[in-house]
Amino acid sequence: MAISDTGPLVQTTPLVTFLQRVQLEAHRSYPNEKTPDPKFYIDLSLKLPHHLSTVEAAFNDLTSGSRDLPVPVKKLEKFVHEYFDDAKDLVPHEPEDFVTDPFEFLLNVENDQVREWAREVHSLWKTLCYRVSDSVRESPDRHTLLPLPEPVIIPGSRFKEVYYWDSYWVIKGLMTSKMFTTAKGIVTNLMSLVETYGYALNGARAYYTNRSQPPLLSSMVYEIYNVTKDEELVRKAIPVLLKEYEFWNSGKHKVVIRDASGNDHMLSRYYAMWNMPRPESYVFDQESASAFSSTLQKQRFLRDIATAAETGCDFSTRWMRDPPNFATMATTSVVPVDLNVFLLKMELDIAFMMGICGDKNGSERFVKASEARKKAFEAVFWNEKAGQWLDYWLSSDGDEPETWKAENQNTNVFASNFAPIWISSFNSDENLVKKVVKALKNSGLIAPAGILTSLKNSGQQWDYPNGWAPQQEIIVTGLARTGVKEAKEIAEEIARRWIRSSYSVYKTSGSIHEKLNVAEFGEYGGGGEYKPQTGFGWSNGVILAFLEEFGWHSDLFIKH
Ligand SMILES: OC[C@H]1O[C@H](O[C@H]2O[C@H](CO)[C@@H](O)[C@H](O)[C@H]2O)[C@H](O)[C@@H](O)[C@@H]1O
Fold first, then answer.
1. Where are the domains positioned within the chain?
2. Which residue from 132, 123, 128 is spatially nearest to 156, judged by alpha carbons?
3. Quick check: 340 and 267 in contact, CB under 8 A?
4. What spacing in Å lies between the alpha carbon of 158 and ligand 1's midpoint?
5. What is the CA(214)–ligand 1 centre distance, in A?
6. Closest ligand 1 atom to the C-alpha of 280?
7. Is the dihedral of CA 101, 102, 104, 105 positive or negative?
8. Which Gene3D superfamilies match (predicted)?
9. Nearest CA to 221 among 232, 205, 210, 206?
10. What's the distance, CA 535 to chain centroid?
11. Is the confidence metric ipTM above 0.85 for this complex?
12. Among 163, 288, 453, which residue has the most ligand 1 atoms within 8 Å of its CB, making it the best to mutate?
């Protein structure tokens, strides 16, 4: 009998399993250059009055003669059209708190051109706001979309569902747009997922139940509370955050690294509860896994792929033992700097929220937890020579404590190495900030349109020449809020570059992009045909948040 991987698994639904078959058949049917996005098939819903069993029977008939030859495209399209609905499970929704010109909107942005564009970006929330259709609530088995109680803001483009970490930057932008009800609704939706599953899902689809995404729920609650002072929200959030905290600090997510003096440091890693091809990319993952011969190797590789999706950075050389060789993906063997930043932030946020609710003991417990994690940052991640925090490669499977070794720090430069500067535990230390600013300036990461994700050109989405997308916002905000002049200056300069390029791409291609080609972006770059203006959730959010943070009054769109 073949030896199998025994790690945790979360089963998916019968509909997802069936739609994978349809996706695979479509991949066989279409001539290569026309193959539709595999995600299209996994997002389909069953049309009324058909039931899964009858549709499966019809599909079996359709494919029965096609063991060697694929189903002709026309026949497959007819089948899809007859039995499925596409993109009807979300219904456009006018956000109730949207006003064209919000009261006190970007008061510190004095430049007319900038204000006019900001209003346009603000109005794009309307194109990204939906509610889940009644049919999803009434017959969840017909859909891969999951029911959520409140309206949603989606990223847009091919992503027609809520995403966990994207929602943080969406909320930052909604705060600028004064759309507090919509922001609270997003948090309520994510909290409902944690209540149901024990963690916030990667996204609100049945095929995302086997993993989470970077844990930023506490930061979302914190941002909303900071503006609205809504104590009720905080009270509701605390038990949910405690549940989420437990998820990230137990089982396979928890690792212990022992330092040279014998002190144990508890940290966390990403670890998906899945070891098969991701349903939304089944055809691709199956092909990548075909490089391995044994079942165990395939399953481990596929878990590392699904785990990379849990990191939010799918894919990057950051997760490869031998970059850029994709077959060496080993995400579960990395103890990542940024994940632990998010968890340290969660500890500080929970301590703060418990303080608001008068739970002094609880608050002290979480302050202590944050202090312990801060020590772990010093012992495991910090590299004095590099002036940044480095990811750590595990030597074993991470189930037992292992002893720290200098050579296990990943000395490659990634934007995430600078993420700790986001939080007060680190950015309150002026000497440390100066070292980190120097390292960031010399890192090669600061590019014409913002901060690069990495310096390696691997062809992957989360590598050179792309930027650390909106995630750079946390580095910029952290630097901007220190008392160190050169930190503030570099923060403003990075934000200016990001805004100027986003503006340029928007004006020339017609959309706000989820990511920019940060390295090769020219002064006015962009290009492409003029299309109706479209938003992209998290980038929309960062544009508005940067404008709020820096309150520019000069012309941003001229090179300074
Ligand atoms: O369909 C493939 C993958 O798509 C998602 O990842 C990317 O888009 C997300 C939405 O903007 C974003 O949160 C993520 O950082 C991107 O890499 C999805 O999250 C993956 O799980 C999925 O496999």
1. 14-85, 90-229, 413-560
2. 128
3. yes
4. 10
5. 12
6. 1
7. negative
8. 1.50.10.10
9. 232
10. 17
11. yes
12. 163
**Listing from the earlier edge strand, what are the strands of the sheet with 90-92?**
90-92, 129-132, 152-153
Tell the residue number behind the tokens 């055809």, with chain if given: 283
- Nearest atom in ligand 1 to 166's CA: 13
Question: How many Å apart are CA 256 and CA 273, to the nearest integer?
Answer: 20
Positions annotated as catalytic residues are: 314, 514
Residue nearest to atom 11 of ligand 1 (CA): 155
**Where does residue 367 fall: left (phi above 0), alpha (psi -120 to 50 degrees), or beta otherwise?**
alpha
Residues near 535 by beta carbon (within 8 Å), at least 6 away in sequence = 121, 124, 125, 127, 128, 156, 511, 512
Q: Which residues line the pocket of ligand 1, CB cutoff 6 A?
A: 39, 155, 159, 163, 165-166, 202-203, 278, 280-281, 309, 312, 314, 514
Coil, strand or helix at 409: strand
Per-residue pLDDT of the chain (560 residues; tens, 9 = 90+): 678 898 999 999 999 999 999 999 999 999 876 778 999 999 999 999 999 999 999 999 999 876 678 999 999 999 999 999 988 899 999 999 999 999 999 999 988 888 999 999 999 999 999 999 999 999 999 999 999 999 999 999 889 999 999 999 999 999 999 999 999 999 999 999 999 999 999 999 999 999 999 999 999 999 999 999 999 999 999 999 999 999 999 999 999 999 989 999 999 999 999 999 999 999 999 999 999 999 999 999 999 999 999 999 999 999 999 999 999 999 999 999 999 999 999 999 999 999 999 999 999 999 999 999 999 999 999 999 999 999 999 999 999 999 999 999 999 999 999 999 999 999 999 999 999 999 999 999 999 999 999 999 999 999 999 888 889 999 999 999 999 999 999 999 999 999 988 888 888 777 777 667 788 775 444 444 445 677 889 999 999 999 999 998 777 776 54
Beta bridge partners of 46: 84
Q: Ligand 1: which atom is nearest the Cα of residue 164?
A: 13
Place of tokens 């396979």: 252
Helix (H) or strand (E) holding 378: none
Q: What angle do CA 333, 338, 339 make, to 5 degrees?
A: 65
Cα 312 to middle of ligand 1, angstroms: 6
Phi-psi region of 397 (alpha: psi -120 to 50; beta: other; left: phi over 0): alpha
CB-CB contact of 199 with 240 (8 Å): no
Nearest Cα neighbor of 245 from 365, 163, 361, 147 is 365
Chain mean position to CA 227 = 24
Distances (CA, A) of 369 to 10, 335, 357, 504: 29, 18, 19, 44
Tell whether the torsion through CA atoms of 217, 218, 224 and 228 is positive or negative: positive
pTM score, whole prediction: 0.96
For 472, the 3-state DSSP assignment is helix
**Structure tokens that stand for 389 in this block:** 């925090």
Ligand 1 geometric centre to CA of 74 (Å):
30
Q: Are 238 and 353 in contact (CB under 8 A)?
A: yes
